[in-house]
Write a structure and sequence with these properties.
Layout: H1 13-20, H2 27-35, H3 44-55, H4 66-70, H5 77-93, H6 108-118, E1 126-132, E2 138-146, H7 156-165, E3 170-176, H8 186-202, E4 206-212, E5 217-219
Parallel strand pairs: 3-4
Antiparallel strand pairs: 1-2, 1-3, 4-5
Helix pairs in contact: 2-3
């Protein structure tokens, strides 16, 4: 079993990056640089290759979690954290909207542009609440619930509890449909109506509920449903 040290110096991933630029490296070589070291039995480059084979290609990296990475022989807590940090940085770099805080909500696409990257490739439904001040500026967004592939268990009390704690004036709800279909389900419609009624009673209205699908979104506000 060969190690990185067995590769001629000029052909090692780090040296190739320095001499020729990062764009010339293969996915395996880029991962090997992040992984840094292998084990007694396997090099960092081979470990990178094994990871790519296990997940089914570089595009699947955005879907992996800590538990899955640590289950791969040769990847311990430190390497798992380093890989997840690098993946998250890549996601943030590619967001058209870098942060929602202090952005004034004046159209649903602003929210979609942010969350389309955040939820890309996610296999379960994620439900977020976005909290606005009196001027419709976003003061906080919070992931409140993660459901199964088909259903997310959403408790209104958690949505409005957070709103009261931070003195929010209104709320935008957002969740994804892993299937990619943006048409609201019966459950989505019932939930939205319930939240709208509770919000009106509490004086903290729900101003929109946005469903994120595959390269598209559905806004209850834009469609006249709120």
């Amino acid at each position: 079993m060969y190690t990185i040290k067995d590769i001629p110096i000029n052909e090692r991933p780090r040296e190739r990056l320095i001499n020729y630029g990062s764009e010339t490296l293969s996915n395996e070589e880029l991962l090997a640089i992040i992984i840094k070291t292998g084990t007694k039995k396997i090099s960092a480059k081979m470990l990178a290759n094994n990871l790519l084979v296990a997940i089914g290609g570089i595009e699947k990296l955005k879907e992996i979690n800590y538990e899955y990475l640590e289950s791969i022989i040769g990847i311990g807590p430190a390497k798992a954290c380093e890989l997840l940090a690098a993946i998250e940085l890549g996601k943030r770099i590619n967001r058209e909207v870098k942060s929602l805080k202090k952005i004034k909500f004046n159209n649903s696409k602003v929210v979609y542009d942010y969350y389309s990257k955040e939820l890309d490739g996610v296999k379960q439904e994620h439900f977020y609440a976005i909290y606005l001040d009196n001027n419709k500026k976003i003061i906080k967004d919070k992931l409140l619930f993660v459901g199964t592939l088909n259903k997310s268990l959403v408790h209104p009390r958690e949505i409005f509890k957070e709103a009261c704690l931070i003195s929010a004036s209104s709320i935008i709800c957002i969740h994804n449909h892993p299937s990619g279909n943006i048409i609201p389900s019966k459950e989505d419609i019932v939930l939205t109506n319930n939240l709208k009624n509770i919000g009106n009673l509490m004086g903290i209205p729900i101003v929109d509920h946005i469903i994120i699908g595959k390269n598209n979104y559905y806004s209850f506000f834009e469609n006249g449903d709120i």
